[in-house]
Amino acid sequence: MYAPRVFVSMTGVLIAFAVSAYFMTDSFYTAFIQTLICAVILQAGYFLGVLYLVHREKKFREEAASPDAVSSKTSRESSRRDTMRADAAPNVPASDT
């Protein structure tokens, strides 16, 4: 999850929600309160998504650190986590194949 993109998307959703809530209720106050509730729900969902990603990364690192991890890796696991160093990535040609 790329945070700036998420925040811009959340802002766009909240604006659309606020406009539609205003037209449905004809009350600025009600639309404002409903938009605040929507913002809290969206933020909670984003927080839970980040927690899930952190938990998944921790699980991958713990599996990699175990002593028998090298011998127990399957081809599915190795395809999910490559062994390319971070500084080698700029030297890889980009292609849409």
Topology overview:
Layout: H1 3-25, H2 28-65, H3 69-72, H4 75-80
Helix pairs in contact: 1-2
What does this structure look like?
- This protein is mostly helical and 97 residues long.
- Helix content is 73%, strand content 0%.
- The chain has helices at residues 3-25, 28-65, 69-72, 75-80.
- Helix 1 (3-25) packs antiparallel against helix 2 (28-65).
- It is elongated.
- It starts with a helix and ends in a 17-residue tail after the last helix.
Cα distance spanning the termini: 24 Å
Strand content: under 5%
Q: What is the N-to-C succession of helices and strands? A: HHHH
What class do helices, strands and sheet pairing give? Answer: mainly alpha
Continuous helix count: 4
Arithmetic mean of pLDDT: 80
How does the major sheet shape up? none
- What level of helicity do the residues show? over 70%
The 3D shape can be described as: elongated
Q: Please tally the β strands and state the result.
A: 0
Low-confidence stretches: none
Integer-rounded radius of gyration: 21 Å
Question: Can I get a quick summary?
Answer:
With 97 residues, this protein is mostly helical. Helices cover 73% and strands 0% of the residues.
Properties at a glance:
73% helix; mainly alpha; single chain; 97 residues
